[in-house]
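Support request from a user on the community tier.

User writes: "When I paste my structure tokens into the form, the page sometimes reloads and wipes my input. The last time it worked, I copied everything first. Here is what I submitted, just in case something in the input itself triggers the reload:"
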């Protein structure tokens, strides 16, 4: 089945997954950081102080996610949507009215928990459970909602600031969530999909043992996988969170830099679809050794190239990495650990990713405040990615051998 036939036959579920990831943008670092300069000025925070504030709020959401995230295993996706979207809208409204640093921490906690955490978790868990042989394609279509948000929302936000204050833009975001996102996503997801017999019979992962969350946490391979899996969220969040500082450091125009998000989005979209086809053909495990190579190249390019054109090269390579990694993560865990407890297992993985996004901005902000070169930090991230590729080369073989022995 080609992509167009697949999309036509599964349009409602794929669009629902896409919209969940698209509207998760209001809790993603790239969107929050668009107000970063105004927030720092409003509350009198340095780069490091704002980074630490963000870190504590995100850590709180990471600790909560394993408990909240498992509800996807017990209630329908549609009912989950009725909980998480109003909660995200409430946090958006509160951001527009907050003047207290304590309230700011609580708002950031809710934005991260229900935006980045639960919206993404619900989308990818649904795709993992509803699709089997075509799981890679389903995930690849759902995850590009992230890139659509990254492509369009920075430009829309910059244009909105010509008319509205930064606080008013958050209230508008809440209205959009409640009156556009909620009814649309609920309508699309209220009918759940069941993998067909043909899907299951053609999918090798359908025979994989379904691990419980406690079994997964006791698996050494799981923790080794996280050394690579957490890298894109850690690095991407860190760079987006401090984008204002990077722009100032390099002397770029903020508007020029905002255009580079479109380059990243196009690149991510293309390579997410490519990754989906490769996963369905070869498996997610087979792609593990090379998925961090583009991210390593992106970091090295950002370190070496200081002109604004360098930002477009960086964003293009980052898009390649995001396209592969976001699709890979949606398909990898069912291949290794089965689907019965997927919501519970994925909630821990998403929590770990959120934890990584918490540590990144805080640690990097602290290092910036203490005179450590930001360019050197970016280069170090690239070197780490190359080292992780070597680890994944050996680990993917070990996992394949174990799966063959268990089958």
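"...and here is what came back when it finally went through:"
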């Amino acid at each position: 089945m080609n992509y167009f036939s697949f999309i036509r036959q599964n349009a409602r579920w794929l669009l629902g997954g896409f919209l969940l990831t698209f509207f998760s943008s209001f809790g993603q670092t790239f969107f929050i950081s668009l107000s970063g300069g105004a927030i720092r000025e409003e509350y009198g925070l340095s780069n490091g102080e704002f980074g630490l504030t963000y870190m504590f709020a995100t850590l709180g959401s990471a600790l909560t996610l394993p408990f909240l995230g498992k509800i996807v295993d017990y209630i329908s996706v549609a009912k989950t949507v009725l909980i998480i979207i109003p909660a995200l809208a409430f946090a958006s409204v509160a951001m527009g009215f907050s003047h207290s640093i304590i309230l700011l921490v609580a708002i950031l906690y809710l934005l991260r928990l229900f935006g980045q955490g639960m919206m993404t978790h619900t989308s990818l868990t649904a795709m993992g459970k509803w699709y089997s042989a075509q799981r890679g394609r389903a995930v690849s279509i759902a995850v590009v909602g992230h890139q659509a948000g990254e492509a369009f929302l920075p430009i829309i936000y910059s244009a909105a600031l010509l008319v509205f204050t930064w606080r008013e833009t958050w209230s508008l975001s809440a209205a959009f969530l409640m009156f556009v996102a909620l009814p649309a996503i609920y309508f699309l997801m209220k009918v759940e999909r069941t993998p067909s017999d043909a899907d299951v019979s053609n999918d090798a992962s359908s025979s994989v043992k379904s691990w419980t969350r406690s079994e997964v946490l006791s698996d050494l391979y799981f923790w080794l996988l996280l050394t690579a899996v957490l890298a894109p969220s850690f690095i991407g969040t860190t760079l987006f969170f401090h984008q204002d500082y990077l722009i100032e450091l390099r002397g770029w125009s903020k508007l020029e830099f905002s255009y580079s998000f479109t380059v990243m989005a196009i690149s991510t979209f293309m390579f997410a679809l490519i990754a989906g086809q490769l996963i369905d053909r070869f498996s997610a495990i087979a792609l593990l050794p090379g998925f961090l190579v583009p991210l390593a190249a992106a970091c090295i390019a950002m370190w070496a190239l200081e002109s604004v054109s360098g930002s477009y090269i960086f964003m293009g390579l980052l898009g390649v990495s995001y396209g592969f990694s976001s699709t890979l993560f949606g398909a990898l865990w069912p291949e290794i650990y089965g689907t019965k407890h997927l919501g519970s297992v994925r909630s821990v993985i998403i929590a770990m990713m959120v934890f990584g996004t918490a540590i990144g901005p805080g640690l990097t902000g602290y290092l910036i405040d203490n005179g450590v070169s930001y360019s050197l930090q970016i280069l170090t991230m690239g070197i780490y990615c190359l080292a992780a590729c070597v680890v994944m080369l050996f680990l993917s073989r070990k996992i394949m051998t174990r799966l063959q022995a268990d089958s």
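Agent notes: The reload is a front-end session timeout and is unrelated to the input. The two ends are 27 Å apart (CA to CA). The chain is about 80% helix and 0% strand. Escalated to web team.
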